[in-house]
Amino acid sequence: MNILPNKPPTWLSTPPENDVVIGCWGVILRNISGRKFPIKLGSAESETIFSLFEPYLLEAGWNADSFTPIEQIDPIHRLLYYERLNIPEGVVHRPMHGLLAISEDESKTVLVNWVDHINLIVRMRTAKFDEIVYELTKFIGYFDDAFEWAKSDKFGYLSSNPMQSGAGVILGAYLHVPATILLGKFGRLKRELIERELTVASIWKMGVEEASGIINLKTRRLVGVTAEQLVAQISRAVEDVVAQEIEAREKLWEKSRESVEDKILRSAGIVTYAKLVESWELSTLLSAIRLGISLGVFPMPLSAVDSNLILARDAHLAARFGEELTDQQKLSMRRAQFLAETLWFS
Amino acid sequence: MKCEICGKNDATHQVVQFIAGRRKVINVCDECFLKVGIDEQLASADEGVKKVEVSSFRCPGCGMTLNEFIESRFLGCEQCYEAFGQFIDVLVQRFQSESKPESKGEEQKSPEEVLVRLKLQLKRAVDDERYEEAARIRDQIRLLEKKLRSKHEEK
After folding, report:
1. A93 touches chain B (CB under 8 A)
2. Is A150 a member of any domain?
3. Which of A153, A190, A272, B152 is most buried, judging by how many CB atoms fall within 10 Å of its CB?
4. What's this model's pTM, rounded to 2 decimal places?
5. Three-state SS for B53?
6. A36 and B76 in contact by Cβ < 8 A?
7. Domain boundary residue among A250, A283, A298?
8. ipTM greater than 0.90, yes or no?
């Protein structure tokens, strides 16, 4: 795996389909029936399972050599993969005997023997969840005839994490809803989405992203539903959130233009001149600038901000500049320098 | 009374266990009692129902205990779904079906949940050097811990 901390993922570098959807993702997970789940696997059993999967991984276009044992990846790079790939946060702290492979454009990640025996994540810039599910089921189709998957009538496909059992598929979207927040309508929107059996979370689990308007919306009810129902559910929800946010932006621009411009330009000022930018500030500042681009305040592509949302995170800066992850002061300094030098010239 | 694991047969065993500091009594049938491996500590017979106090439920497939599952949040094999069925039902229902997770008011939360939340608040307040607030939260924690201690002693 040769991922450069100064280069954004290819799939994220393209222009987004609309200003609200930053990206979408889907996960498919399966466990072989009759085998212990990864948390109970020793290294020999883990190798056996990987060797069972090997010929089918190859058929699906994944060479065994492209898999790296997670234990062998240094902590900075594990965190770096978490920051840019939406792999579960637990991979960083609990490698188990898992193996990880990443496609060249970073739109796909395969995890073997981490939490579940096999797990594919697909990312896309646009909200085409049917295409995501097609990619997921196509991949698992290579294994379907060869393996009997752990499944029950009651819970559906069984995951090592019971919260993820059911359809065996989880779908989600990264959305940018700053105007909904500025208009004070986010609380209601969040409640509505939760009532529609979706989860609203922050992307990097820092909490601040959600407060700044960048949310990770994902399917929650998985038992008793099919992948097709999940596609319909999340697609409708994303459409509704996009419509509400666009309406909120128009209202905000019409009624409170000065205060919105002020908020955007203050953020731009900090990004341009600050000596230190702490990690918790990053999403808030970039969210305001992203809103500025959408409203035509800054003539630059949204992808510049989207890339920096990842490239200016702790592990990326630590890997790029050779800093220690624990030295927050140095990382804040590097972040400020990096943003000032790169953001406006993208 | 029906078995709380399979919901089909009559319960013949009353299993008592402390899970996450809380006393939990589960009524199970013979079949489920045998299916769920348990470390027996104390057993007594009362009106035909055997009372069993256990240190842990254990999955017969992979040997995972209920406490291990609660700690790690991961299951060891597909048989764990049967062995810990009742708890998984509750967890999955709570997580996947609850329509308003954050609408749960403070008064509806268990004292243990409130304690965990207060401890997190204390950490944040100390990290942010909000010492007055931290002292207030610390006093609330002490009071709650005292209440919890006396509640457990009563039992």
Report:
1. no
2. yes
3. A190
4. 0.79
5. strand
6. yes
7. A250
8. no
> Is residue A132 located within the same domain as residue A214?
yes
How far does Cα B91 stand from its chain's mean position? 10
Residue A238 placed within a domain = yes
Tell me how many domains chain A contains: 2
How far is the C-alpha of B17 from the C-alpha of B29, rounded, in Å? 16
Last residue of a domain, one of A229, A250, A271: A250
Q: For A101-105, A230-234, B75-79, B130-134, which range has the lowest pLDDT when averaged over its residues?
A: B130-134
Contact A111/B at CB under 8 A: no
Buried b (16+ CB within 10 A) or exposed e, A18-46: ebbbbbbbbbbbbbbeebbbbbbbeeeeb
- Distance between CA atoms of residues A112 and A157, nearest Å: 17
Q: Are strands B13-19 and A21-30 parallel, antiparallel or unpaired?
A: unpaired
d(CA B33, CA B38): 8
Same domain (yes/no): A171, A292: no
**CA separation for the pair B45, A22 (Å, rounded):** 62
Q: Enter the DSSP assignment of B65.
A: B
Q: Rounded mean pLDDT of B42-69?
A: 70
Chain A residue with Cα closest to B91: A163
Asked if residue B45 has pLDDT above 60, the reply is: no
Q: Which of B6, B8, B74, B91 to mutate to test the interface with A (most CBs of A within 10 A)?
A: B74
Residue numbers of the domain that contains A161: 10-250
> A95: how many CB neighbours lie within 10 A of its CB?
18
Res. B107 pLDDT band, cuts 50 70 90: very low
What is the rounded end-to-end Cα distance, in angstroms, of chain B? 24
Pick A223's closest partner by Cβ from B63, B73, B96.
B96
Res B87 pLDDT > 50: yes
Q: Confirm if A198 and A235 have CB atoms less than 8 A apart.
A: no
Tell me if A178 sits within 8 A of A212, measured CB to CB.
Answer: yes
User: The domain that contains A182 carries what CATH number?
Assistant: 3.30.590.10
For residue A7, give the nearest of A266, A300, A215, A303 by alpha carbon.
A303
B13 contacts B49 by C-beta, under 8 angstroms: yes
State the nearest Cα–Cα gap between A22 and chain B, in angstroms.
25
b (16+ CB within 10 A) / e for B76-100: bbbbbbbbbbbbbbebbeebbeeee
Nearest to A305 by CA among A321, A292, A315: A292
Residue-level pLDDT at B18? 61
Residue A5 counted as domain residue: no
Chain A residues lying within 8 Å of B74, measured CB to CB: 37, 39, 115, 160-161
Q: Which residues of B touch A33 (CB under 8 A)?
A: 78
3-class state of residue B81 by DSSP:
helix
